[in-house]
Amino acid sequence: MHDSHDPLRSLFQEAASAGQSASTTPPVAVIERRGERHRRHRIVGIAAACFLVLAGSGAVLSAFLPGDSGPTLPATTPSPVAPSPTSAPPPPSNSTPPTLNSMTPPRNTTPPPPLNSMMPSGSRTTSPVDPTGTATMSAMPPQSPR
Description:
By secondary structure, this protein is mainly α. The chain contains three helices and two strands, in the order αααββ. 0% of the residues are buried.
């Protein structure tokens, strides 16, 4: 049953012949640009996937690694620090803001006694003066210069 007078068949044939006559191959430069664009998109996609894999594995590793067990203790026990006798009490809350002169602690007006008069010579050495203005003594004998 071949019907050559089928209207739908004749319309499809007309559309096919019109499409064939109107179709042309695009220039080579256009095809190259399109291929280059696809290649760049592929490279960017691969790079993004690699970044996500690395970031995800880093997050997983950091989740499974043991955390800090606390602060690291010093190798030696520090000596206790006495509170400074020159510390001022906090200002009242209803006062004006403190100025630079009111925030500095008062200075010690009397100089410390000379260290040489308090101990025999050569038995002890003095260490540097600490911030409170007092010298600390050490039981180390003086060392001879080499």
